[in-house]
Amino acid sequence: MTAFISSVFGVLEILILIALGYFLTARGWFNDHSSKIIAKVVTQVALPAYMIVTIASKFTAPMLLRLLPDLFFPVLSMMILFALSFLVCYLLKVPHARKGTFKSMFFNSNTVFIGLPVNLALFGPSSLPYVLVYYMANTTIFWTIGVYLIQGDGPRPAKFDLKKALGKVFSPPLLGFMLGIVLVLLKIKLPTFLMADLTYIGALTVPGSMFFIGIALHQAGWGKLRISKEALGIFSGRFLFAPLLMTALVAFAPVPTLMNNLYFAILHAGHDQCACCCQTVRCGFRLRCYHGHRNNAAFDDRDPNRDDLHPVHSLGVAVE
């Protein structure tokens, strides 16, 4: 019962922050420009700082080295979901112009604006390395396979840009994580004042992410939200197939219980890089699922007005 109450409070913390972001947007404090600034501050400043200070202060070299084999689980689960997305796409008869977007959202997750803040609220800083293990796999696959699929929906032939993909994979959050690992492995201690600054900056991560979601939810507009068969197909991927698959992969594997719970939580998230509004539709359902897991244990700068890059228009979930 104590774990249940604690997890409920953790979810309420997040919902209150989202509601505050929604309310302030309704009052005119935030707009589309504000959301872009918040997203950049979170992903390029606050989150990297949080990675550095948390890894450097709370983990040891042996603890981090034990995480490397765990990359197997998220990579395998995403590859299986990727293959399954073709079958679901065929059964739902998704139009050709939306197939790439559908498949990408079916097997990708959001580990920055949903997965990380939710896990920090429910499981604390000890969850960070496991979230980052999934983040590395998810980010690499999204900015290679995922983006290639989405480009295929546009009028021009899809092409893979290795330089751009590497730039997205080695994003500020991942670089902050890597720097934290280097500090731990080399046993380098940062000055106290610098650690304090990083702590203050990193504290912006969760509230900033939740404000961003609240802003997006208000901008989507409740009256414009609608559910299509493609959206239901994506929901099945995130809420049905992904959790069942991860259950089969890690339920009996020799991994920490916390890691099991974290992967289940992250798997419910969709990728914000493509459809933040679709994200907000799922947010309420996703958060309500998390207390069960607790009891058992990069924003991008694409023009949202371009239909070929904004799958929300295609999926019929939310339109600007």
From TrEMBL:
InterPro entries: Mem_transp_PIN-like (IPR004776). Keywords: Cell membrane, Membrane, Transmembrane, Transmembrane helix, Transport. It is found in: Membrane. Pfam families: Mem_trans (PF03547). GO terms for biological process: transmembrane transport. GO terms for cellular component: membrane. It is a multi-pass membrane protein. The chain crosses the membrane at residues 6-25, 37-59, 71-92, 104-124, 130-150, 170-188, 200-218, 239-259. This is AEC family permease.
